[in-house]
Amino acid sequence: MSARLVRAARAPRSARALAVSLMALAALAASPRPARPSCGADNCPLDQHAAHGMGRRFSFDLSYQLIRQDRVLVGSRSAAVGALASPEDEVRTITRMTTALGYARLTERWQLSAALPFVERTHRHIRNEEGRPPAPLEWNYSGPGDLTLLSHWAATRDPAAPLTVTLQLGARLPVGRRHVATVDGEEPEPPARPGTGSLDGLAGIHLMHRVGLPAAGGLRPGSFFAGALLRVNGRGTDDYRVGNEVQASCGGSWPLAHELGVLGQLNARFRGKDDPGRTDALRDNTGGASLYAQPGAAGRDSCRDRGLRLRADPDLPAREPHPARLALAPVRGPCLATRAVRRRTTPASSGTAAR
């Protein structure tokens, strides 16, 4: 398939300096790039690492997201389906994804996370063959996605330090569903299936600066954070290799009260061209960049040793600079997450009030 389916109160001087740095990162992320592919899946890049301090022994997240990708773009302009001649005209993809994410603290400085999504997807396109009328095709399928394992090493020895730096290294393992039922003898491209069949390497860095921010009842702990994650993709199903990708995010949390806070996150995604392997995908309609904002809110119901936190984060597309020649842009629905944590019985290091 050929197209892309696409998403103060006064703080201390150090906090203001970090905020300026985050805005500079955002400006860099807005520079023009080629586009991302069309027939692949999208996801909600919540900065989950910012929510998990080293003081917690175990924690578990369960998130749900809804993504509608149904707006046709030619370059960066809106267009009608079939605006450009192509063997296939992308029409719509609707993705519902439930992701389980677990964290385990191995030592004071080492942490391991594992994420496994379950994908439900509807994909529709129109096949154009010479001498035949256009043929609408629609797939409805579901299945487990690929498993992501990521280790987190705290470069700063003191987990209660105002500024923490964490290095990340891991892999995405091809355990997801690689094939779906055919429609008229055809499957969606490998990136649109729950699992890609490729073994991918991951490396990243995460910085978080904790500050006291004005809230009901006085100063409460908030934070600013920034991070980047590189994914180097291997070859998967049908020798298809998704382009290497860099995801960058920055944002922060502001506590309103003891159990309630507001969140803000700016996300940028840069992806290289795909190698279509043995498929008939068009390489020119893959690769690119996107930038979008993610406001949200979080609440917490906690006791001494256990806690439950809820958060809601809609995605607001800020910019899709120079998308692929033909693309479908997303209208993302809410991304909802709940988190259960188990802390050490001894006092843990300081963290943010609401995540």
Could you write a compact summary of the structure shown?
The protein is built from 1 helix and 16 strands. The protein is mainly beta and 355 residues long.
Q: How many strands in all?
A: 16
What order do the strands of the largest sheet run in, or round the barrel if closed?
2-4-5-7-8-9-10-11-12-13-14-16
By CATH's scheme, which homologous superfamily applies? Answer: monomeric porin ompg
Proportion of residues in extended strands: over 45%
Low-confidence stretches: 1-41, 302-307, 318-326, 343-355
Query: Helix count, per DSSP?
Result: 1
How much helix, percentage-wise, in residues?
under 10%
Radius of gyration: 21 Å
Terminal residue distance: 39 Å
Give the helices and strands as they follow along the chain: EHEEEEEEEEEEEEEEE
Structural class category: mainly beta
Can you tell me the CATH topology? Porin
Mean pLDDT over the full residue set: 75
Quaternary form: single chain
Number of separate structural domains:
1
Summarize the main sheet.
12 strands, antiparallel, barrel
